[in-house]
């Protein structure tokens, strides 16, 4: 997932300076892969590791990658034309942000991951940085107070 995410990020940034139609199609295709193959609608998380056919191969949740993907996907939506895809992915990224917030935000920061149902509560700098950007992005989209966090020291108004 992380490789596909950063290819999407690179294509999106390239598109801002070179808005070629084929590049736009590639961005849309990668967004569709996230929507159709990487996002799990039951768990509201992104799969982490996949086989060549994009079947998940491990029960893992990377909270940092989940929240990072929300804002990177939203950034890519600015440059695609498919209104239905934009609407659906916009909803999905808010669902992911809500799920990460509910499951992994504790003591004022974001925990690292859960693998095979075992939580790794380490705090890692890049996860915290992505949490800040991702939750701010979610707030800017929804303009809703993140009330779930008020008892956990994160309040965004």
Label this structure with key terms.
Glycosyltransferase; mainly alpha; two-stranded antiparallel sheet; three-stranded antiparallel beta sheet; 5 helices; 157 residues; globular
Secondary structure elements and their pairing?
Layout: H1 2-17, H2 21-38, E1 39-40, E2 45-46, E3 60-62, H3 63-77, H4 83-104, E4 105-106, E5 109-110, E6 113-115, E7 118-120, H5 125-142
Antiparallel strand pairs: 1-2, 3-6, 4-5, 6-7
Sheet with the most strands: spatial strand order: 3-6-7
Domain module tally: 1
Q: What sort of overall outline do the alpha carbons produce when their principal axes are compared?
A: globular
Oligomer: single chain
Provide a descriptive summary of the structure in words:
The chain is mainly α. The chain has one domain: Alpha/alpha barrel (Glycosyltransferase). The protein is 57% helix and 11% strand. It has a 3-stranded antiparallel β-sheet with strand order 3-6-7. Strand 4 and strand 5 form a beta hairpin. The longest helix is centred in the middle third of the chain and has 22 residues. The radius of gyration is 15 Å and the shape is globular. The termini are far apart. The C terminus is likely disordered.
Q: Could you write a compact summary of the structure shown?
A:
The protein is mainly alpha-helical and 157 residues long. It contains 5 helices and 7 strands, in the order ααβββααββββα. It has one domain: Alpha/alpha barrel (Glycosyltransferase), CATH 1.50.10.
